[in-house]
Design brief:
This protein is mainly alpha-helical and about 70 residues long. The chain has one domain. The protein contains three helices and no strands. Helix 1 packs antiparallel against helix 3 and helix 2 packs antiparallel against helix 3. The longest helix is centred in the last third of the chain and has 29 residues. It is elongated and about 50 Å long. The chain starts with a helix and ends with a helix.
Length: about 70
């Protein structure tokens, strides 16, 4: 959960000019009106977050010894 939150915070940091994962989408996609770049970066961010959540879910199932 912490990794997903950090990825989201890093993506949002680009919107205020602090760099991070969202900086590329804002600078090259939104400000230069290059929709394909913005869509590609957003897709990569979505895949990254989904991948982190998937790995975390698998770790929980594997490490949960209550069952």
């Amino acid at each position: 959960m912490t990794l997903v939150t950090l990825a989201g915070a890093s993506a949002m940091a680009g919107a205020i000019g602090a760099g991070g994962l969202g900086d590329l989408a804002i600078r090259y996609g939104y400000q230069r009106f290059e929709t394909s770049v913005m869509v590609a970066v957003v897709a990569v961010l979505i895949v990254l977050v989904c991948g982190i959540q998937w790995v975390g879910d698998r770790l929980v199932v594997r490490l949960d010894h209550r069952g």
